[in-house]
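Exercise: predict the fold of this chain.
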Amino acid sequence: MANETEKNNAGKVVSALTVFLSKNRIILIICVAVVVLALAGLWIGLSVSASVTEKNQARIDTLQEQFNTWLTLEDKTTAEAEQAVQDLTTGLEELSKKGNKYPAVKSLYLLGLIKVAQESYQEALDYFIASAENAKDTYLAPLSLMNAAVCYEQLSDAQKALETYQSVYDRFGSDTPEAPKALFNVARLHEKANTLDLAKAVFQQLADEFPSSEYAKLARSRLVTMQ
Protein backbone atom coordinates (compact mmCIF):
# COMPACT_ATOMS: atom_id res chain seq x y z
CA MET A 1 0.00 0.00 0.00
CA ALA A 2 2.78 2.38 0.91
CA ASN A 3 4.59 1.65 -2.35
CA GLU A 4 1.38 2.33 -4.29
CA THR A 5 0.98 5.67 -2.51
CA GLU A 6 4.57 6.65 -3.25
CA LYS A 7 4.08 5.76 -6.92
CA ASN A 8 0.94 7.87 -7.07
CA ASN A 9 2.72 10.82 -5.42
CA ALA A 10 5.67 10.49 -7.78
CA GLY A 11 3.29 10.37 -10.72
CA LYS A 12 1.56 13.52 -9.54
CA VAL A 13 4.92 15.32 -9.23
CA VAL A 14 5.96 14.26 -12.73
CA SER A 15 2.58 15.27 -14.09
CA ALA A 16 2.71 18.66 -12.40
CA LEU A 17 6.24 19.25 -13.65
CA THR A 18 5.19 18.26 -17.17
CA VAL A 19 2.29 20.72 -17.08
CA PHE A 20 4.54 23.47 -15.73
CA LEU A 21 7.15 22.91 -18.43
CA SER A 22 4.44 22.82 -21.09
CA LYS A 23 2.84 26.06 -19.96
CA ASN A 24 6.12 27.91 -19.40
CA ARG A 25 8.29 26.47 -22.13
CA ILE A 26 8.41 29.79 -24.02
CA ILE A 27 9.56 31.65 -20.90
CA LEU A 28 12.12 28.96 -20.15
CA ILE A 29 13.42 29.05 -23.72
CA ILE A 30 13.73 32.84 -23.50
CA CYS A 31 15.55 32.59 -20.15
CA VAL A 32 17.98 30.04 -21.55
CA ALA A 33 18.52 32.21 -24.61
CA VAL A 34 19.21 35.24 -22.41
CA VAL A 35 21.77 33.31 -20.37
CA VAL A 36 23.44 32.00 -23.52
CA LEU A 37 23.58 35.49 -25.02
CA ALA A 38 24.95 36.91 -21.78
CA LEU A 39 27.70 34.30 -21.68
CA ALA A 40 28.45 34.87 -25.35
CA GLY A 41 28.58 38.61 -24.76
CA LEU A 42 30.93 38.13 -21.83
CA TRP A 43 33.21 35.90 -23.91
CA ILE A 44 33.20 38.39 -26.79
CA GLY A 45 33.84 41.27 -24.37
CA LEU A 46 36.78 39.48 -22.80
CA SER A 47 38.14 38.55 -26.22
CA VAL A 48 37.85 42.14 -27.48
CA SER A 49 39.44 43.47 -24.28
CA ALA A 50 42.36 41.04 -24.60
CA SER A 51 42.74 41.95 -28.26
CA VAL A 52 42.79 45.68 -27.49
CA THR A 53 45.32 45.15 -24.68
CA GLU A 54 47.61 43.17 -26.97
CA LYS A 55 47.26 45.80 -29.69
CA ASN A 56 48.10 48.64 -27.29
CA GLN A 57 51.08 46.71 -25.90
CA ALA A 58 52.42 46.12 -29.40
CA ARG A 59 51.90 49.80 -30.16
CA ILE A 60 53.83 51.04 -27.12
CA ASP A 61 56.67 48.62 -27.90
CA THR A 62 56.92 50.10 -31.39
CA LEU A 63 56.77 53.66 -30.06
CA GLN A 64 59.48 52.85 -27.51
CA GLU A 65 61.75 51.70 -30.35
CA GLN A 66 60.99 54.89 -32.29
CA PHE A 67 61.78 56.95 -29.19
CA ASN A 68 65.11 55.17 -28.70
CA THR A 69 66.03 55.79 -32.33
CA TRP A 70 65.14 59.48 -32.11
CA LEU A 71 66.92 59.97 -28.79
CA THR A 72 70.21 58.66 -30.18
CA LEU A 73 70.20 61.04 -33.15
CA GLU A 74 73.19 63.37 -32.94
CA ASP A 75 71.34 66.13 -34.77
CA LYS A 76 67.70 66.48 -33.76
CA THR A 77 67.20 69.67 -35.79
CA THR A 78 67.11 68.06 -39.23
CA ALA A 79 63.81 67.91 -41.11
CA GLU A 80 63.86 64.12 -40.83
CA ALA A 81 64.42 64.22 -37.06
CA GLU A 82 61.71 66.81 -36.53
CA GLN A 83 59.24 64.79 -38.55
CA ALA A 84 60.18 61.67 -36.58
CA VAL A 85 59.55 63.31 -33.21
CA GLN A 86 56.32 64.85 -34.48
CA ASP A 87 55.03 61.44 -35.58
CA LEU A 88 56.25 59.89 -32.34
CA THR A 89 54.53 62.54 -30.23
CA THR A 90 51.27 62.11 -32.13
CA GLY A 91 51.35 58.35 -31.63
CA LEU A 92 52.10 58.67 -27.92
CA GLU A 93 49.40 61.28 -27.39
CA GLU A 94 46.82 59.01 -29.02
CA LEU A 95 47.84 56.00 -26.96
CA SER A 96 47.98 58.00 -23.71
CA LYS A 97 44.24 58.63 -24.00
CA LYS A 98 43.36 54.93 -24.17
CA GLY A 99 42.66 54.15 -20.53
CA ASN A 100 45.10 54.03 -17.63
CA LYS A 101 46.84 50.71 -18.19
CA TYR A 102 50.56 50.27 -18.80
CA PRO A 103 50.66 51.31 -22.51
CA ALA A 104 48.84 54.59 -21.77
CA VAL A 105 50.96 55.35 -18.69
CA LYS A 106 54.18 54.51 -20.54
CA SER A 107 53.08 56.90 -23.30
CA LEU A 108 52.81 59.75 -20.78
CA TYR A 109 56.23 58.88 -19.41
CA LEU A 110 57.86 58.86 -22.86
CA LEU A 111 56.19 62.17 -23.72
CA GLY A 112 57.79 63.60 -20.59
CA LEU A 113 61.21 62.31 -21.66
CA ILE A 114 60.77 63.88 -25.10
CA LYS A 115 60.01 67.26 -23.52
CA VAL A 116 63.05 66.94 -21.23
CA ALA A 117 65.25 66.31 -24.27
CA GLN A 118 63.71 69.41 -25.83
CA GLU A 119 64.27 71.33 -22.57
CA SER A 120 60.55 72.07 -22.27
CA TYR A 121 60.55 71.39 -18.56
CA GLN A 122 57.06 72.62 -17.64
CA GLU A 123 55.46 70.41 -20.27
CA ALA A 124 57.66 67.53 -19.19
CA LEU A 125 56.62 68.08 -15.57
CA ASP A 126 52.94 67.91 -16.49
CA TYR A 127 53.45 64.60 -18.27
CA PHE A 128 55.48 63.10 -15.41
CA ILE A 129 52.91 64.11 -12.81
CA ALA A 130 50.13 62.53 -14.89
CA SER A 131 52.25 59.42 -15.37
CA ALA A 132 52.99 59.14 -11.65
CA GLU A 133 49.30 59.46 -10.76
CA ASN A 134 48.17 56.82 -13.25
CA ALA A 135 51.06 54.43 -12.64
CA LYS A 136 49.90 53.81 -9.05
CA ASP A 137 52.32 51.25 -7.54
CA THR A 138 54.09 50.13 -10.73
CA TYR A 139 57.77 50.81 -11.39
CA LEU A 140 56.85 53.80 -13.58
CA ALA A 141 55.48 55.71 -10.58
CA PRO A 142 58.81 56.32 -8.76
CA LEU A 143 60.58 56.91 -12.08
CA SER A 144 57.98 59.51 -13.01
CA LEU A 145 58.31 61.23 -9.63
CA MET A 146 62.11 61.31 -9.90
CA ASN A 147 61.86 62.95 -13.30
CA ALA A 148 59.22 65.36 -12.03
CA ALA A 149 61.63 66.41 -9.27
CA VAL A 150 64.37 67.03 -11.84
CA CYS A 151 61.95 69.22 -13.79
CA TYR A 152 61.13 71.21 -10.65
CA GLU A 153 64.84 71.82 -10.17
CA GLN A 154 65.20 72.96 -13.77
CA LEU A 155 62.29 75.34 -13.15
CA SER A 156 64.12 76.69 -10.06
CA ASP A 157 61.55 75.37 -7.59
CA ALA A 158 63.90 73.70 -5.12
CA GLN A 159 61.23 73.24 -2.44
CA LYS A 160 58.88 71.32 -4.73
CA ALA A 161 61.83 69.31 -6.00
CA LEU A 162 62.77 68.37 -2.43
CA GLU A 163 59.19 67.42 -1.59
CA THR A 164 58.92 65.28 -4.71
CA TYR A 165 62.18 63.45 -4.05
CA GLN A 166 61.00 62.86 -0.48
CA SER A 167 57.67 61.53 -1.75
CA VAL A 168 59.49 58.77 -3.64
CA TYR A 169 60.87 57.39 -0.37
CA ASP A 170 57.70 58.11 1.63
CA ARG A 171 55.48 56.38 -0.90
CA PHE A 172 57.63 53.41 -1.91
CA GLY A 173 60.27 53.06 0.82
CA SER A 174 63.04 50.61 0.09
CA ASP A 175 60.84 48.72 -2.39
CA THR A 176 62.00 50.91 -5.25
CA PRO A 177 65.58 51.01 -6.61
CA GLU A 178 65.13 54.79 -6.78
CA ALA A 179 65.03 55.15 -2.98
CA PRO A 180 68.78 55.73 -2.38
CA LYS A 181 68.97 58.30 -5.17
CA ALA A 182 65.85 60.03 -3.88
CA LEU A 183 67.25 60.29 -0.34
CA PHE A 184 70.58 61.55 -1.64
CA ASN A 185 68.83 64.34 -3.51
CA VAL A 186 66.74 65.22 -0.46
CA ALA A 187 69.94 65.58 1.57
CA ARG A 188 71.68 67.47 -1.25
CA LEU A 189 68.88 70.03 -1.45
CA HIS A 190 68.83 70.43 2.34
CA GLU A 191 72.57 71.08 2.22
CA LYS A 192 72.09 73.56 -0.62
CA ALA A 193 69.41 75.35 1.44
CA ASN A 194 71.86 75.45 4.38
CA THR A 195 69.61 73.31 6.57
CA LEU A 196 72.66 71.31 7.51
CA ASP A 197 71.26 69.32 10.42
CA LEU A 198 68.54 67.94 8.18
CA ALA A 199 71.06 67.24 5.44
CA LYS A 200 73.28 65.30 7.86
CA ALA A 201 70.30 63.33 9.19
CA VAL A 202 69.20 62.25 5.72
CA PHE A 203 72.76 61.44 4.60
CA GLN A 204 73.10 59.27 7.72
CA GLN A 205 69.74 57.62 7.06
CA LEU A 206 70.86 56.82 3.53
CA ALA A 207 74.17 55.37 4.73
CA ASP A 208 72.41 53.22 7.34
CA GLU A 209 69.52 51.92 5.22
CA PHE A 210 71.36 51.35 1.95
CA PRO A 211 74.98 50.71 2.98
CA SER A 212 75.98 49.00 -0.29
CA SER A 213 74.51 51.68 -2.53
CA GLU A 214 76.77 54.01 -4.49
CA TYR A 215 74.72 56.86 -3.09
CA ALA A 216 75.49 55.64 0.44
CA LYS A 217 79.19 55.97 -0.36
CA LEU A 218 78.60 59.52 -1.54
CA ALA A 219 76.56 60.20 1.60
CA ARG A 220 79.36 58.99 3.87
CA SER A 221 81.78 61.20 1.97
CA ARG A 222 79.53 64.22 2.45
CA LEU A 223 79.17 63.47 6.17
CA VAL A 224 82.95 63.52 6.55
CA THR A 225 83.16 66.81 4.68
CA MET A 226 80.38 68.37 6.77
CA GLN A 227 82.01 67.54 10.12
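Check your answer against the key: The CA atoms of residues 187 and 201 lie 8 Å apart.
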